[in-house]
Amino acid sequence: MGHRSLGHLFIFVFFVVLAACGSRTPLERSGGSSGPGPGPGSDGGGPGPASCGNGVIDPGETCDGANVGGQTCSSLGLGDGRLGCNARCTLETGDCQRGGACGNGVIDRGEQCDGNQLGGQSCQSLGLPGGALRCSACSFETSGCRVPMCVVADLGDALGAPVTVSETFGAADDFASSCGNFDVPDSAFFWTAPNDGCFRFDTRGSPMDTVLMLEGSCSGPELACDDDGGGDVSSLIETELGQGESVFIVVEGFNPGEEGPFQLNIERCSGDREFDCFNGRDDDGDGLTDCEDPDCAAFPECGMRFENCFNGQDDDGDGRVDCDDPDCQGSPACPFPFEDCGNGVDDDGDRLVDCADPDCNFSPQCPPRIENACRNGMDDDGDGLTDCEDPDCSSRPFCARSCPRGDLGSELGSPVITGNTQGSSDDFGASCAAGADSPDDPFSWTAPTDGCFEFNTVGSNYDTALTLQGSCMGPEISCDDDAGGSLQSRIQRPFFAGERVVVVVDGFNGGSAGQYALNILSCDPEVNCTDGRDNDGDMLVDCADPDCAGNPGCSSTCPMSDLGSALGDALAVGNTQTQSNDFDAPCAGGGGSPDIAFAWRAPADGCFQFDTNGSGYDTALTIRPSCVRPIIACDDDGGTAPDSLIQLDVRAGQDRIIVVDGFSDFSSGFYQLNINPC
After folding, report:
1. Within a 10 A sphere around the Cβ of 125, how many other Cβ atoms?
2. 200, 268 in Cβ contact below 8 A?
3. Exposed, middle or buried, 274 (CB in 10 Å: 0-12/13-18/19+)?
4. I want to staple 145 with a disulfide (CB 3.0 to 4.6 A). Which of 131, 542, 582, 668 is the partner?
5. Which residues have C-beta within 8 Å of that of residue 94, sequence separation ≥ 6?
6. How is residue 114 annotated by DSSP?
7. What is the greatest pairwise CA distance in the chain?
8. Across the strands, what pairs with 261?
9. What is the pLDDT of residues 352-410, one digit of tens each?
10. Sign of the C-alpha dihedral, residues 172, 204, 197, 278?
């Protein structure tokens, strides 16, 4: 079924027509058409309802045999002609005669729309939830008129910087990102591409450290993920999409529990084509709008925009005359200059002289340029392709291997991956093994941080050998047979963050193969006690790991007491002189002040003020999601100096840890904690 809905001008046929929606239509440029296709009610194949053919219009049918329910081409807004019924019991409108020429940019008799002209209609005006209404073959296309449950808003097909400004305060963690952290609130948006092309999604201008994802649906899969590709702490993804293709855009913070405001920008990729030549916009970002852009030269409405190569004038206004203009390359008036391969001169002006110019690749004056050595790590022929990447090396046996079998990213765990080497090829030799001919599986892996990491095959059911390679071409960095015990292998090695290796699971004896488990763990202790992750792979997270026993955030004194959801002045009063120093306040002048922590749960959505007005010393105030999570807010003298004050937006039921601290080392005294609506 190539076309979309027909009768959105008539609400009573809307749902039947919507059920006929299927594939996307080809791209329609303004001023032109994608060409003819089957009518909106044409039979696209497949069986109809079970009741189809009984002459009665049953549920799910718009017609049955000769019974078309009293409808006509005219009543459907399709002009004159004969309305029929196809074998799937849906209306057949191929014989309806429209009054105008579809694709002329004008809504003629019998057309619901034409090109970008929608006649003032929208998804909402047709009684649909929202989204982007489009035109396909001069009929309304409503597949974008939906708002999925997991999104904050449907952005339609809007472009701009920004398209929306929002925030993640109080949001749930609905999406897991491959390039961010766990337990981070996120906000999702639904967006539909207005045309075929490349689109750029970024969070530049956002005050928090963002992570940006593109998802295929509310339940995934993840299509792309980026942390800091936009520069500084902003995120950026560029991707190709087809007209009408929809994606879910997810924005979250980078750090566990991080919440905050953000800006979402959606623009066309730089260098893309001008998609609409009559909308007054620079669609492809090249500084040329509509008919000024050579992309629009084919449209008669744009007139003659090419250079006349014979008249001595700058016809297209680009500052280049006749043969100096790239439009004239290949013109009889401008013979294209080729490189003379033996005169030491750059004859064609491309800054490449003689044999360095591709024009001379087959000149007898220039020796053949091929990749001579396919294992030296060098680009011998200067074509930008090294060793086995170069087609010149395709016949070399060692370039035919499938390596790596997969990319493990920076994953840690027990196991990271499982598999079976039976049926795999023997591509690598292990220097610590007894013989060759054992099949092997290679995987690439990148160190997530500086530190020691362990690779082992514990859990495998055969005598393994394990090697680390610098790349698929070698060299071998480490090799082990049985250090893991019971014929299993183990390698420990220090890494730098971002260092990449190829991990090869091999067999000890010739022909050894079987099921394997590849485990990758940290050799270091739990390095971060507040990130919600098992850093050292011992299945103990943060404060549950004995490595964190001395961490202040894991102290049993946090919180000292629970304030519930109470509001008012002097909710807690006391003296910090008898307290220990468990927390730091980055907005204060020292880290040695005693402090006291309180648990509090928001009674309602809204802004609440936390302050120490009425205290007897120079206080500092911090707020965290929990005792072991990063600080959300910190203040020194925002209240009645030297008291502290923080205003924070929260959602009903959110838990917060409020810490009363001192400004300078050893500052302590009488404190008063007040919590009130802003």
Report:
1. 12
2. yes
3. buried
4. 131
5. 38, 39, 41, 42, 84
6. B
7. 94
8. 167
9. 788 877 777 667 777 666 666 666 666 767 776 777 767 777 666 556 556 788 899 99
10. positive
User: How far, in Å, are 258, 259, 656, 658 from residue 651 at the CA level?
Assistant: 15, 12, 11, 16
Contact between 588 and 629 under an 8 Å Cβ cutoff? The reply is no
Are 48 and 38 within 8 A, CB to CB? no
3-state class (DSSP) for residue 648: strand
Question: What is the SS3 assignment for 407-450?
Answer: ECCCCCEEEEEEEECCCCCCCCCCCCCCCCCCCCEEEEEECCCC
| pLDDT for the residue numbered 128 | 67
Q: Full-prediction pTM beyond 0.85?
A: no
Instruction: Write the pLDDT tens digit of every residue in 253-298.
Output: 999 889 999 999 999 887 666 666 777 776 666 667 777 777 676 5
Cβ atoms < 10 Å from Cβ of 587: 18
What value, to the nearest 5°, has the Cα angle with vertex 585 and ends 579 and 591?
65
Buried b (16+ CB within 10 A) or exposed e, 548-579: beebbbbbeebbbeebeeebeeebbeeebeeb
Q: Which helix (H) or strand (E) holds 609?
A: strand 606-611
Higher pLDDT, 42 or 536: 536
Q: Which residue carries 């035109």 as its tokens? A: 135
Query: Looking at residue 266, what is its pLDDT?
Result: 93
Q: Report, in angstroms and rounded to the nearest whole number, the Rg of the chain calculated over CA atoms.
A: 34
Q: Which helix (H) or strand (E) holds 606?
A: strand 606-611
- Residue whose pair of structure tokens reads 């030269």 in the numeric block: 297
Report CA 387 to chain centroid distance, whole Å. Answer: 32
